[in-house]
Amino acid sequence: MKEDFPNNRVIERRRFIRHPISLPLVYKVIKPNTSADGKSETKNISIGGLSFPSKKAVQPDSMIAIRMPFEDKVFNIKAKVVRCENNSETKLYDIAVNFFRLHEAFKVKMIEQIYLIAEYRDLLILQSGKEVSLEEASRKWVKRFSKRFKRLYW
User: Fold this and answer.
1) 3-state secondary structure string, 43-61?
2) pTM beyond 0.85, yes or no
3) Which of 13, 37, 56, 84 to pair with 63, CA 20 to 30 A apart?
4) pLDDT digits (tens, 9 = 90+) for 134-143
């Protein structure tokens, strides 16, 4: 969230650094009870929340349930809508949410790490020309990147 001041300084009011990443999600507004739901992909993620585009507007202060699938697992997260802005370029609404609890943020960080490992696995397969299991890629990724990932994201 940025705020303009008379001397043209822009003050950044976000509490956490955001990291651009596109992860699939399905959302449903659960309070107030409305028909606002849909499929989307994250635009960015932070330890405090995430943002995504939506075809439908969602009222700030609404509680939403987010489902983030990965392979045979589905991660469920509850969050509060803090901002909904009409994006004139995309003709969609930019929705920003805050996580309710730290374990919700932890789930999203784990999903992000799993996706990064899956991408790393694809890269290893391309480089070696051989099949690489997700488990093997995970071991290599953790050994090579986990300290940097922790420093960058936590």
Assistant:
1) CEECCCEEEEEECCCCCCC
2) no
3) 13
4) 888 888 887 8
